[in-house]
Automatic annotation (TrEMBL):
A GO term, aspect molecular function: iron-sulfur cluster binding
Signal sequence, renumbered to the chain: none
Segments forming domain 2Fe-2S ferredoxin-type: 12-85
Species assigned in the record: Adhaeribacter rhizoryzae
Protein name in UniProt: (2Fe-2S)-binding protein
Highest taxon of source: Bacteria
A Pfam family: Fer2
Length: 106
């Protein structure tokens, strides 16, 4: 089962089951993660910065392609509500979407 390590959440390891979206796995692991549109791919608040293992996230979805074209999703970012994890990856929460009640590491 692929593992996502969240670097700035104290190296929290999230196991992602096959056919499970990353946002769902993060929630199941007990981590609060911003997703203003409810995980429907209509915003970019659930984005994650991928530091390593981008190739393990599969192809970009139509919403992700749209946001890339608009400049709202960088080359090293993905929407957690849209993508699946096929191999281990290392990511971090963007500064803009951190929650004030959550403790983050460096």
């Amino acid at each position: 089962m692929p593992k996502l390590v969240l670097q700035n959440l104290y190296q929290k390891e999230v196991l992602v089951m096959p056919a499970q979206k990353i946002l769902t796995a993060i929630g199941a692991a007990g981590v609060d993660w911003m997703h203003a549109c409810g995980g429907k791919g209509r915003c970019t608040t659930c984005r994650i910065i991928i530091l390593a293992g981008m190739e393990g996230l599969g192809e970009l979805t139509p919403p992700e392609l749209k946001y890339r074209e608009q400049g709202r999703l960088k080359a090293n970012e993905r929407l957690t509500c849209q993508c699946f994890l096929l191999a281990d990856a290392l990511g971090r929460v963007p500064e803009e979407t951190k929650f004030p009640h959550q403790s983050y590491s460096g």
